[in-house]
Amino acid sequence: MKNQELSKIFFEIANYLDIEGVSFKPFAYRKVAMSLENFKDDVGEIYRSGGVKALYKIPGVGKGIALAIEEYLKSGKIRHFQELKKKLPVKVDDLLRVESLGPKKIKILYQELGVKNLKDLEKVAKAHKVSPLFGFGEKTEKNILQGLEFLKRDKGRFLIHDILPVARDIIEKLKNLKEVDEISLAGSARRRKETIGDVDILVVSKKPSKVMDFFVRLNGVEKIWAQGGTKSSVRMREGFDMDLRVLPKESYGSALQYFTGSKDHNIVTRKIALEKGLKLSEYGVFKGKKQIAGRAEVDVYKAIGLPFIEPELRENEGEIEAALAGKLPKLVELSQIKGDLHCHSNWDGGENSIEEMANEAMKMGYEYIGISDHTKFLKIEKSLDEKQLLKQIEEIKKINKKFQISNFKFQILSGCETNILADGSVDISDEVLEKLDYVIAGVHSMLKMEKKEMTARIEKAMRNKNIDIIAHPTGRIVGQRDEYQVDFDKILKMAKETKTILEINASSRLDLRDFYIRRAKVEGVKMIINTDSHHKHQLNIMEYGVAQARRGWAEPADIINTQPVAELLKYFK
Ligand code: DGT
Ligand code: CA
Ligand code: CA
Questions:
Q1: Contact 473 CB / ligand 1 (< 6 Å)
Q2: Which H or E run includes 417?
Q3: In the CATH scheme, what architecture does the domain 3-153 have?
Q4: Atom of ligand 1 nearest to the CA of 193
Q5: What distance in angstroms lies between residue 367's CA and the mean position of ligand 1's atoms?
């Protein structure tokens, strides 16, 4: 599949064009890059069977890009891309990951100081050569240094969104092997942590060497660190490592328990075993020399006097105490989610029409979808003003009617994602907000406010009787941006007082974080899990939001989109 490679190249070209200051073209490249990311058919196959013309069926592909794809498929290169890289020999991708650096600034840094990569950037920023540049200043220099620190901290860890699909694909392939009797994900990926260091997979097999041979030769394996009879370790093309362990049947459950971790959780389970005169290891639970459990994970827990503990809870953050007291939460599940209320349509530059988004949601078994396009303050290609929102409400009514006639038990809700301005007001008038089924509001600008001001700003938005949901309430983005300064206790208090719902954003924001979810739950503040999709295929990242909620101990009653539409509407102001 060349789709992912091409998608990556087109994203990069778009970045270069941004830096050159070309208008419109970057958008076109990004659009194609996004469609390729989600396109099911192989570009190479499409081209082979129908030539350049056939490539037009990929959304966003016009003549220029079709020819570029052809060139890449034939020669492995795109001349235009090579020229751009030569003209601006800068690691744009890397530099863009630094919070507070955009294309314009990257260009200036290169032209004025010769900054080509992160290392160069750190050097000039530490030498205070950045602040005197036009448009930079001391604050920007400080932000750049902070951004660099952030990147270092997360180095070598990967977003769960990028890992899980690859790991699942490999597990599927291994499953098809007749020598594989049982297989499971373990480690942090099974616990669904936000970021993953390496992927751990466990297999039961009587023929380990056959399994290992197959594993290290899998498509996508770039390097073999070790190949042995019980453990092999490889580096994948995407840059992360994968460990495979093969076990005898009798130890599968205890190995699963051990290698799922976390380490802190295991330390306590082992201690509990010892207190009962037992020994717990990856090989089993032993009484003297006799194995009393090990085959199944649930029996391992049972043998040491505990109920099964969901992997997402295994962090020694109180789950053992809760288990002993019979007070484990009954965690929310993906299958309980009935709809998604943070979705963008092509009205604000998203990829799909309202109807396409709705059809996809229906296919997923949802009962409703909410359209929440960006509003006018946000300077993106398109964003909606009052007039367009009113028009969109009518359009949604029409589509809903069509669904009714077809007897679909499905409903589209009209919403929007307004911007909370610096003073806590929003950029759409109350008369129009009132007409929507619900309103999401989020902070998208002026992220560096003082804590007191930022808290007051969001509190004021929550007091707005039309605002139902606060999107990504703390502003963090995994591996890219820390949360803004905000007093979360006050936010919770105000949310409770004003019955405002807090979002658990399933995208790479993963905001709320797990410990905030736990606090919201204790305070009785309701939450909603949303994907923030800009493309119909992104609707399926819901599972990462659910995983986040589960790590935050959330139960179905805490999450309003586990409710059918009639109940859901009751939560809105
Ligand atoms: P990661 O890979 O950094 O995202 O996190 P994990 O949790 O997957 O850690 P990893 O891959 O080093 O080890 C997998 C599991 O194996 C870990 O969660 C618990 C278990 N484990 C590894 N080393 C130790 C250890 O020294 N003591 C104990 N009790 N358990 C360990
Ligand atoms: Ca791991
Ligand atoms: Ca590992």
A1: no
A2: strand 417-419
A3: Orthogonal Bundle (1.10)
A4: 4
A5: 40
Amino acid at 295: R
Q: Which fold has domain 158-247?
A: Beta Polymerase; domain 2 (3.30.460)
Pull the structure tokens for residue 407: 């007897």
Instruction: Give the homologous superfamily in CATH for domain 252-324.
Output: DNA polymerase, thumb domain (3.30.210.10)
Amino acid sitting at position 160: I
* Ligand 2: centre distance to CA 237 (Å): 17
- Residue of the CA atom closest to atom 25 of ligand 1: 263
Is residue 259 within 6 Å of ligand 1 at its C-beta? yes
Spatial neighbors of 72 by CB under 8 A, at least 6 apart, are 2, 5, 6, 9, 78
For residue 303, the number of C-alpha atoms closer than 13 Å in the C-beta half-sphere is 27
What is 334-571's CATH superfamily? Metal-dependent hydrolases (3.20.20.140)
Backbone torsion region of residue 16, taken as left when φ is above 0, otherwise alpha when ψ lies between -120 and 50, otherwise beta: alpha
Q: How far away, in angstroms, is 512 Cα from ligand 3 center?
A: 27
311 lines ligand 1 (CB under 6 A): no
Residue type, 258: Y
The single residue listed with the structure tokens 């939001």 is 545
Pocket test residue of 153, 188, 270 for ligand 1, highest count of atoms within 8 A of CB: 188
Output the pTM of the full model: 0.84
How many whole angstroms from 260 Cα to the centroid of ligand 2? Answer: 8
Please report the pLDDT score of residue 353 as a whole number: 96
Amino acid of residue 511: D
What are the per-10-residue average pLDDT scores of the chain (573 residues)? 87 88 83 84 92 91 93 93 90 86 90 94 95 91 89 84 95 96 98 97 96 95 93 92 96 98 97 97 96 97 98 98 97 98 94 95 97 87 90 97 90 97 95 97 92 97 97 94 94 98 98 98 98 95 98 98 96 93
Q: How many CB atoms lie within 10 A of CB 324?
A: 13
How is the chain split into domains, by residue range?
3-153, 158-247, 252-324, 334-571
Contact 439, 466 (CB under 8 A): yes
Residue 196 tokens read as 């993953």
